[in-house]
């Protein structure tokens, strides 16, 4: 399913009405329409809608309640809340003012998302003619990337293991004429990716490093996405309740794939590199163990104090590879720690970065893209927490404090050479349905990043 705006001229006008403007709007309507609105009890509340019939009973227009400014501030896509209350059909914005037409148009497209790979359904679609003045092609590109990200995250590990994740990357490369190279299984050792190999070697599907490139001019942008297609916790096995959502542990990879698609579709003038260590953290005879000391690509050793802290290990090798080319900007995205969720909840994408221009550009872009982010600190005094007695690094410091920060500090040790580095510790999951956001897989951060790139990279 491709998210697209309607192009027909035969669309019902959808009037945007706030509570304090309802009486004025109603008084200006013909008697039949005004009487219908007054009799309906419609108040203009946020998320409400009303179909208004003509003389033959078929709808001639519709109202969407837009609530108050304070109420809209609590919704990412305020208009999208009214969509389920509308009759199936095609609409165009009539009277009234949208706070941010591009954001509301994107929310409309995202509200049509359904994950229907395993369930046959006939959705009752509500289509929208792109509002005047918005860049419809760009919004469709953003929505399409979000659909891809959600589909990848929602697909269970039975159909989205390392092999399938590789195929998704290859499909993307084929579509945009990008090059792709994949290092698989024991070849990871031959090419000096020991941590990726160690984490993934116990799985029935071989671990791999996916390396995609696109663009031959402009600043170098490297994206690194955690592709743990399922995480049992390894020998430090997760309890059942904690394992239930682990199909989404490749959410970092899904988000970077979606972001890469947007960058290529919009033709940004960058040299793009996408690195995805794709593994399953499984349990079998070759599983890596608590207490092991593992070598990394960079030559740093890591003591394994918890096999469930595997994401930072596979990212470390990929980051080290990416940093070797000295990119102008390197970003990692990962569903890395539960500590991040405790800190900011599921709605915010926490990120770590010490480059102030990027921080400012990202924060500004996030507000306009309905893609909220929150800056977290690379708190240097905590460096000692990731330095154990017998190795260079500790993959799971004891004590339980500052888990997201110590994970980010661990990753930063492998980024020397990158001019700028930022790490996103995302959740990539919508726990309950909300306007424009179906329950399930979710993109977090890509639209904010995409909005920040032109300013940061001088595009």
From TrEMBL:
Name the SUPFAM superfamilies on file: Macro domain-like (SSF52949), Zn-dependent exopeptidases (SSF53187)
Look up keyword Manganese and say if it applies: yes
Gene Ontology CC entries for this record: cytoplasm
The Cytosol aminopeptidase domain sits at: 306-313
Q: Name one GO molecular function term.
A: manganese ion binding
Protein keywords: Aminopeptidase, Hydrolase, Manganese, Protease
UniProt key word Manganese: yes
Q: Which Pfam families match?
A: Peptidase_M17, Peptidase_M17_N_1
Spell out the family assignment given in the record's similarity comment. Belongs to the peptidase M17 family.
Q: What is this protein called?
A: Cytosol aminopeptidase family protein
Q: Which organism is it from?
A: Sagittula stellata (strain ATCC 700073 / DSM 11524 / E-37)
């Amino acid at each position: 399913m491709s998210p697209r705006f309607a192009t027909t001229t035969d669309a019902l006008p959808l009037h945007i009405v706030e509570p304090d403007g309802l009486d004025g709007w109603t008084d200006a309507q013909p008697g039949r329409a005004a009487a219908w609105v007054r009799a309906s009890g419609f108040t203009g509340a946020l998320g409400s809608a009303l179909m208004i019939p003509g003389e033959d009973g078929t709808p001639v227009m519709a109202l969407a309640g837009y609530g108050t400014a304070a109420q809209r501030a609590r919704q990412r896509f305020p208009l999208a809340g009214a969509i389920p209350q509308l009759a199936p059909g095609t609409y165009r914005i009539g009277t009234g003012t949208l706070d941010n037409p591009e954001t509301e148009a994107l929310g409309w497209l995202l509200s049509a998302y359904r994950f229907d790979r395993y369930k046959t359904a006939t959705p009752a679609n509500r289509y929208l003619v792109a509002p005047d003045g918005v860049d419809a092609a760009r919004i469709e590109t953003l929505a399409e990337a979000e659909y891809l990200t959600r589909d990848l995250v929602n697909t269970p590990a039975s159909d989205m293991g390392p092999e399938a994740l590789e195929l998704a990357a290859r499909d993307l490369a084929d579509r945009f004429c990008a090059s792709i190279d994949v290092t698989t299984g024991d070849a990871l050792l031959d090419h000096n990716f020991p941590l990726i190999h160690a984490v993934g070697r116990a799985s029935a599907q071989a671990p791999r490093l996916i390396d995609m490139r696109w663009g031959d001019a402009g600043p170098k942008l490297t994206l690194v996405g955690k592709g743990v297609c399922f995480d049992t916790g390894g020998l430090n096995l997760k309890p059942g309740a904690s394992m239930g959502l682990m199909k989404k542990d490749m959410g970092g990879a899904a988000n970077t794939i979606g972001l890469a698609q947007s960058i290529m579709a919009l033709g940004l003038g960058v040299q793009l590199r996408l690195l995805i260590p794709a593994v399953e953290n499984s349990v079998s005879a070759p599983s890596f163990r608590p207490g092991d000391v593992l070598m990394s690509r960079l030559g740093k050793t890591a003591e394994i104090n918890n096999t469930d802290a595997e994401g930072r290990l596979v990212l470390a090798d990929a980051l080290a590879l990416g940093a070797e080319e000295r990119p102008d900007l390197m970003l990692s995205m990962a569903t890395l720690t539960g500590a991040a969720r405790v800190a900011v909840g599921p709605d915010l994408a926490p990120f770590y970065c010490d480059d102030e221009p990027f921080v400012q550009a990202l924060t500004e872009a996030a507000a306009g893209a309905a893609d909220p982010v929150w800056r977290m600190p690379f708190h240097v005094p905590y460096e000692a927490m990731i330095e154990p007695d017998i190795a260079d690094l500790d993959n799971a410091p004891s004590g339980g404090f500052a888990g997201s920060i110590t994970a980010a500090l661990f990753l930063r040790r492998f980024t020397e050479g990158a001019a700028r580095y930022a790490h996103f510790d995302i959740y990539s999951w919508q726990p309950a349905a909300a306007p424009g956001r179906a329950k399930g897989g979710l993109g977090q951060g890509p639209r904010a990043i995409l909005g920040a790139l032109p300013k940061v990279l001088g595009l």
